Amino acid sequence: MSDTTLPQHAQIDWDDQGRPHSRQYDDVYFAINEGIDETLHVFIEQNHLRQRYAELAPGGCLVIGETGFGTGMNFFCAWQLFAELAHAEARLHFVSVEKYPLSRDDLERAMRLWPQLAPFTRPLLDQYVAIHPGFQQLSLDGGRVTLTLMIGDALEQLPQLDARIDAWFLDGFAPAKNPDMWTPELFAQLARLSHPGTTLGTFTTTGWVRRALIEAGFAMKKVPGIGKKWEVMHGVYGGAPAAPAA
Q1: Can you give the pTM of this predicted structure?
Q2: Exposure of 236 by Cβ count < 10 A (0-12 exposed, 13-18 middle, 19+ buried)?
Q3: Which of 64, 199, 203, 231 satisfies CB 3.0 to 4.6 Å to 47 for a cystine?
């Protein structure tokens, strides 16, 4: 295998609390004590996933899109809740883009911070091999759960995606640290892959991010946050703006 087929892995430092810190973005992946609670509040609750999982019909499939797979915490929380609430014959498809995937050793080390998620982290780790640029699909829970990883720059990967996303997790590092993940071009791709009623949750309430999402067709609303985040954002896609009359 040539070097051109290998991704550039995340460069991780570990702080004295055992929390991973990205050298590329000079930012932490999650809060050490509130990480899972933050994921549940920002991504699960703002996308109404408890209700949507419970209402999935047999054979139905919910598709979640994510910008920034990181340590996989959001995926594991989404899967755990799906396993708890959804019909046994319903399916979950989780599609996530990540420019700098964690090495297997770093991913395993991060997962040890969440022993309560072990029934979900271990099956992924067992398949987390030969991670390469581009698309790769992992089948979990006997095919009931599918994880599609897109490794590479979001604006190179998302235009290649043909999907109908029901809920978005916008979870790149903060706009000040990673502005390339928060551009009108990227939001246009989110809109292209959405349908009227597609929901969105994100930590950031940065004004220019909010305005760009609105311009892309998402109705955005600030909502109370959790922990050190006073506010977060919830959004709903309303469809492409109508073309001006000739």
Answers
A1: 0.92
A2: middle
A3: 199
